[in-house]
Automatic annotation (TrEMBL):
Organism of origin: Perca flavescens (American yellow perch)
GO BP annotations listed: heterophilic cell-cell adhesion via plasma membrane cell adhesion molecules; homophilic cell adhesion via plasma membrane adhesion molecules
Domain Ig-like as annotated: residue spans: 20-131
InterPro entries named in the record: Ig-like_dom, Ig-like_dom_sf, Ig-like_fold, Ig_sub, Ig_V-set, Nectin/Nectin-like
Leader sequence residues: 1-24
Coiled-coil blocks: none
Subcellular location: Membrane
Annotated keywords: Disulfide bond, Glycoprotein, Membrane, Repeat, Signal
GO cellular component, one term: membrane
Gene3D superfamilies linked to this entry: Immunoglobulins
Protein name as catalogued: Ig-like domain-containing protein
Amino acid sequence: MKTCRSPVILLKLICITLLPVLEAQEVKVLPEVTVYLGRDVTLPCQFIPAPQGANVTQVQWDLISPEGEEILIFVFNVKDGLYVNESFKDRVDIAEQSLIIRGVEMRDAGPYTCSIASFPSGSFKGTTNLVVQDTHGPVMDVVRTSVILIDEGVVYSDVKLKPFRDATPPSNEKHTVDDVTYSEVVVGRSHQMR
């Protein structure tokens, strides 16, 4: 029986054998998820094992604070069970490896890291940035002093009263232009003659 005399051939053989296995394992996450204040959100995390398979032994989610500190949200270990941080206890859940946050608050914004440990493959991580948007803040300034506020497809406009001489009765008519329906409201003051 001949032995391999060239270390280069042996190294190539090892690379050809192991490289496909190492490339197939990863954690897939979205780079950014946006949610409105007060809503529920799911931060997806999916472990893609090697073709020969791997057993997930631990799933962990951390929030990275603005100071760079990792805050443990929860960890699930097949042997030790589930641990949930007290400040997230009634607000988070797990579905497969994905994190569900209920009633999102402004302080929930930031980068979240999903860490998955598997046997025999090792540990894998992915980070998602959660952006929290306030539903009641001004979205766009309009000409003059009005501000448009958007809440679930309904547009509200702040109106400033400009007094004028002739009072016009209120109108209940609705006007439609393209896909926008609006009503005109004319408010006037009646002046008594002395």
